[in-house]
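CORE FACILITY INTAKE
Project code: CF-77B
Contact: R.S. (postdoc)
Sample description: multi-component assembly, two entities in total
Requested service: structural model of the whole complex
Turnaround: standard
Below are the sequence entries exactly as provided by the requester. Do not edit them.
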Amino acid sequence: MKIEFKNISKSFGKVQANSKISFTISTGSIHAIIGENGAGKSTLIKILSGQILPDEGSIKLNNKKMILGSTQEANKKRIGILGQDPLDFSNFTVLESFLAGGNKSSVIVSKSKIEKIISEFSKKFDWEIDVNSLIKDLSVGQRQQLELIRLLYLGAKIIILDEPTSGFSLDQKKKVFDNLRELAAKGYSVILVSHKIEEILEICTKVTILQNGSVLQTLDLPVDPKLLIKKMFGKSSEITNNLTPSFIMNNNNNAKNLSLEIKEFSSEEKIKLAEGTIIGVAGLQGSGSDKFIKSFYSYSPQSKVYSDEITSVEYSNITYVASDRLEKGLFPDMTIKEHIALMYNSKSLINWSNTLELTKNLINTYGIVGNPETLAKNLSGGNQQRLMLALIKENTKLLLLEQPTRGLDIGSAKFVWENLFQTRSKKNLIIFSSVDLDEIYDYSDYIICFYDNKIVSTGYKNVLSKSIVMEKISGN
Amino acid sequence: MYKSLLQNFITTILAVFSVSLVLFILQVSPLEIYNNLFDGSFGNLDKISRTLLIATVMALAGFALIITFSAGLWNIGIEGQMLFGAIGATFIARTILGELFFAPVIIIIFGGIFGSLLGLLSAFLKIRFNVHEIFGGLGINFVASGLIVYLVIGPWKREGIASTGGTDLFPAASWINGFGESNFPVYPIVIAIFIFLLLFTLLSRTSLGLRLIATGANTDAADKFKIDAGKFIIYAFIFAGAIGGIAGSIQASSIHHKLVPGIAGGYGFLGILIALIAGRNLFTVVIISLVFASIMVGGVQLQLRLGLDSSFPYIIESVFVMAWLIIKASKVDAKLLRFIIKKEGNFE
């Protein structure tokens, strides 16, 4: 289906999110939309899917004007969107959520039929989804997988993927991409919103670059990746990674030793490491890597970090940053200032003017786009993550990060890591999980590989090669 | 704060307008009704005293519920907590303490303690046995009202009579009297103002209050901020129960001067409505309580003077609540306010 955007404009208050956006997506193509965080990608997608009514402009599907601002119309036109944060009923089982949202018209639905459909799709993509598990117990990746299955089952003809692949393993990604190519060949239109240049180059046929709400250029692919990055970030395109840590053991000889006690996950009793080490936990979605991260965070944790033989790091010195920012990490209806007060105010009476000063400082330091009274839910994903960073207290000895850069563009991800490296100099231990092997290799000193809820391999980065890790986390 | 107060003032005017419309349709003159309501509730010092006393009890119930609402809890057990406060008051009034010149102080304190104990029971059921506070609260309300009936016709029955008409009157020392010779409820008002200031400070200035609100806003995130949600749920119920209990003890020793079945008078349930309407705004609770109390007290007059059905006050009340909720949901008031201050951009 051909999609024509014509002069789409939308502003929120003073912010011009989209300004006179015009471009065409041709039938059977896989079209990428790229741009920095805040370039206007999400707004455009929401306009196409009917969630937002634009101030101006029109969209034509196969030369027919579409009614804008109506999700029903979008459904009728078979537009399906797979979002960054999958929206579904968290207390339902997989099967129930499928039954509730999935059936097209008939009143009576056959459970076994749907079970079959889910398992067929899962097999095709090589996914493991238990139809009887609760949605809330699934990982973010599995929920995305489920959403994609539902879209295909519902017969979406235009499939919008908004930062989808962070939840997929390499193999799974390949299978998904193969299927998307197949669909495109059948005349489906696929729109991919992504920050990952390699992905775009691998699968897409065209790319539209957005900058500050307008179209910068639409290019035929393939092109030189460096050119794309340059265009995407404008002047500030120095994304070469000069952050890669020089190997910690070489320059930190007098660092104290720490030991990790991780009985639940490993036959090895303890792992000994120098303080200041950054541990990357590699594993696919559902491999248990996130569970591992969580197991350190509790009054009486399953896994512990000992600073010497007897004393373990206290709960009050542990900070845990959840990947599900709005659901589990922040208070959607509370302001930035209130978040700061909750974390930094230790007295029983709150001094709001001091808090306001501190909030302003932190907003500046972390470059959060918002003011002290902005509600957390009104911040963009990248800014929510910046707020989370601002909430990491100085006395943190153990910093646990679950998928710290999920959904962030390269610039924001770099910012996150720059900040984390600063914290690292303060003699703490950072443990983070990521499904992105590049991230693991770029930023960690020590790597722990997860498969099927067990640690399958550990080692320093210079010892453990990427290909080995890839095999280990795939269960070989 | 001022903005939201002004906004609620606009909502009140719009809601009163809607009530007028309904009255008009029912072919009664709204003006006459309001005139009578006002005269019936504020016509002389005695009426004012009565209205203010009832408004105080309602406002206290509303305050109690704002605490639990802040923590994300539906404290349906408020009615029971008020009943228990009244039982606590009666318990003291019947002992030697009830003869002391400062008996009212002890009565209020014990009312608070009794109420908070019942609140604690709701919290305990919720945290320990995972009983939702709505069901726990409903059950507790039944138990509390049953207990009163048992006490009134059982251990605390009047000499020689077993009727549900209530216990013996409290000794005079246990009465919370009006100001001087009048019935003007100065002490209940002072208590309400004190609790108002306390809650205002708690919710806007203390970390305890902020954590309470955070617990209600997102329990999962509270964990990441090292806030023990269970602890704050307990605090919320203890606070709310105590305030409810105080309201109950005021009813016992200031209005009835004895324990009667159903002494809470449904003001607890009304308090839920008031808190729902007010959001988390304590000022609005006061305004709505005054409106409701004047409808209740002045409403009696409608029947007598205008020959209207006795259900009229309730019709007015319910139309008022409905209109309020519709206005809030449609954001007409916010739009009107924006139109009035004409300051765009920095207003949500």
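Facility notes:
- The interface with chain B takes residues 13-14, 315-316, 320-322, 327-334, 338, 341-343, 345-350, 352, 391 of chain A (CB under 8 Å).
- Chain A is about 35% helix and 20% strand.
Invoice: internal transfer
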